[in-house]
Amino acid sequence: MPPPVDPEVIRRQYQTKKHLRARQDIHDTYTIPKQNYAHWILSKVNWRGDEVVLDAGCGTGHYANALSQMYPGIRYYGSDLSLGILAEHPTRGHACQCDVTSLAYPDNSFDVVMAHHMLYHVPDIDAAVRELRRVLRPGGILMAATSSIHTMPELQLLLRRAITMLSDAPPTALSVPGTISELFALENGLRLLSRHFYAVVRYDLPNALIFPTVAPALDYMD
Q1: CA angle 18, 24, 29 (to 5 degrees)
Q2: CB under 8 Å to 200, separation ≥6 — which residues?
Q3: CB 131, CB 100: distance < 8 Å
Q4: What crossing angle do the helices spanning 18-30 and 214-221 adopt, rounded to 10°?
């Protein structure tokens, strides 16, 4: 079996904002029930409004925009491995390129650290979580969003069929792009975080992608 995290595939996916933005736009348009996902996640913290926040794997700044709307007094910092992605960030002066297993910040720097939909890309989850905890202040909060390994089973099935038909490799050797790595998923995330934090709380948000035509499904697979 191929490794669950292929660094070259990840690098190509996040070299620019193109693929990330396409997936975000599709989710925003076709997710049922309608929900402002960023606001839903951020609502799980009792904010004072003056926290210092690190957004690890910040991408193009989706949560930076949401935080600035909800709590203008928060001091926001972002980090990401991709320079191409960071070039699109709305607060480029407060975003730096670094690996989540080697963050460019001193110990005890942040009240809240966010690691949303990125830990499943990291080969060494424990090293990443240790580093995220290192930069948290005592009593700080780590927020880590992920998906189920069973997310979008119909789309995964279509992808597997297409790849099987178009590839000479045996089905057991195929890796389906776009599926959630089992390294950090809804099914094991709580257990993995409990190795490093005394208290871990899980919040679920069930939803579905409903495509009225084939075009957005093809866009998502592409």
Answers
A1: 125
A2: 190, 193, 194
A3: yes
A4: 150
From first to last of the 222 residues of the chain, give the pLDDT tens digit: 334 566 677 777 777 777 888 888 888 899 999 989 999 999 999 999 999 999 999 988 889 999 999 999 999 999 999 888 888 888 877 899 999 999 999 999 999 999 999 999 998 999 999 999 999 999 999 999 999 888 887 877 877 787 788 877 665 555 555 455 678 999 999 999 999 999 999 999 999 889 999 888 888 877
Nearest to 65 by CA among 78, 81, 52, 83: 78
Q: What angle do CA 174, 147, 99 make, to 5 degrees?
A: 80
Pairing of strands 208-209, 31-32: antiparallel
Contact 151, 187 (CB under 8 A): no
Closest CA to 218 of 22, 85, 45, 41: 22
